């Protein structure tokens, strides 16, 4: 298990596959030099080095479930002006090598050993997808309840894999035809029925989403100590 105070050293990772998730997001499959011992919810740092020695690095959550192999998947949103995300989207191809370090983070992890409510806003679904994949792989999807908030269907990551009896997708701007829920932000009606007394709540998304989701689950009776939040910003 990775130590957040002493993360593993930098290593080369070969890009073995790239696939689009949305118009602005891609999943990169990386083959590491050493088997990954990551936990669902952890992240890796990606570092790029220019010929003149200039470096830029960003943290990205692992989307793939832990399996002990040397392969991981990172889903990256292309952010205008983002040094790392733009390079990954516009320049990196299969066979390229990049530097990574990790896994990092022990606070926002789930070991599929107790019930969990997973709330993701937009690209905040990435670490939650690792958790859901792990639960499904172990035959314990019953432990997970997932709510993902996106603006419109075209913005949904993992659109062919995410849906299932464990998941609810909330559309805030445009819902697909036949969706019984009118487009709107996440509400107590979306969250409160899924709250379980013994569940840990994992919230990932922008600061406004994280604040709103935290308010909803606390209003539904979830104790603060059972809530784990991971926020992200547009750093690219």
Describe the structure in your own words:
This protein is α/β, with parallel strands linked by helices. It contains 4 helices and 11 strands; from the N terminus they run E-E-E-E-E-H-E-E-H-E-E-H-E-H-E. Strands 4-3-6-1-2-5 form a 6-stranded antiparallel β-sheet, covered by helices on one side. Helix 4 links the parallel strand 10 and strand 11. The longest helix is centred in the middle third of the chain and has 13 residues. The N terminus is likely disordered.
Beta-strand share of residues: 25-35%
Specify the overall morphology. globular
Widest sheet: strand ordering: 4-3-6-1-2-5
Order of helices and strands: EEEEEHEEHEEHEHE
Oligomeric form of this entry? Answer: single chain
Distance between the termini: 28 Å
By DSSP (H or I, 4+ residues per run), the number of helices equals 4
Q: Taking all residues together, what is the mean pLDDT?
A: 94
Most strands sheet: 6 strands, antiparallel
Number of β-strand runs: 11
- Unreliable segments (pLDDT under 50, ≥5 consecutive)? 1-5
Helix content: 10-25%
User: Which radius of gyration do the C-alpha atoms yield?
Assistant: 18 Å
Strand-pairing-aware structural class: alpha/beta
């Amino acid at each position: 298990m990775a130590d957040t105070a002493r993360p593993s050293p930098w290593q080369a990772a070969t890009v073995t596959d790239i696939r689009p998730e949305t118009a602005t997001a891609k999943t990169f499959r990386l083959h590491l030099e050493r088997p990954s011992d990551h936990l669902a919810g952890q992240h890796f740092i990606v570092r790029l080095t220019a010929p003149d020695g200039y470096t830029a690095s960003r943290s990205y959550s692992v989307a793939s479930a832990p399996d002990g192999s040397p392969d991981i998947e990172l889903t990256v949103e292309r952010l205008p002006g983002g040094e790392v995300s733009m390079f990954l989207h516009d320049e990196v191809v299969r066979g390229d090598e990049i530097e990574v370090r990790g896994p990092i983070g022990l606070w926002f992890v789930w070991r599929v050993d107790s019930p969990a409510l997973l709330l993701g806003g937009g690209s905040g679904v990435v670490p939650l997808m690792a958790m859901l994949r792990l639960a499904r792989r172990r035959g314990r999807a019953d432990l997970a309840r997932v709510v993902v908030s996106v603006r419109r269907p075209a913005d949904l990551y993992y659109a062919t894999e995410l849906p299932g009896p464990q998941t609810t997708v909330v559309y805030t701007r445009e819902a697909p035809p036949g969706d019984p829920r009118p487009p709107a932000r996440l509400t107590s009606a979306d969250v409160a029925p899924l709250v379980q007394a013994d569940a840990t709540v994992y919230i990932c998304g922008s600061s406004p989403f994280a604040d709103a989701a935290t308010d909803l689950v606390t209003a539904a009776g979830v104790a603060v100590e059972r809530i784990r939040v991971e926020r992200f910003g547009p750093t690219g």
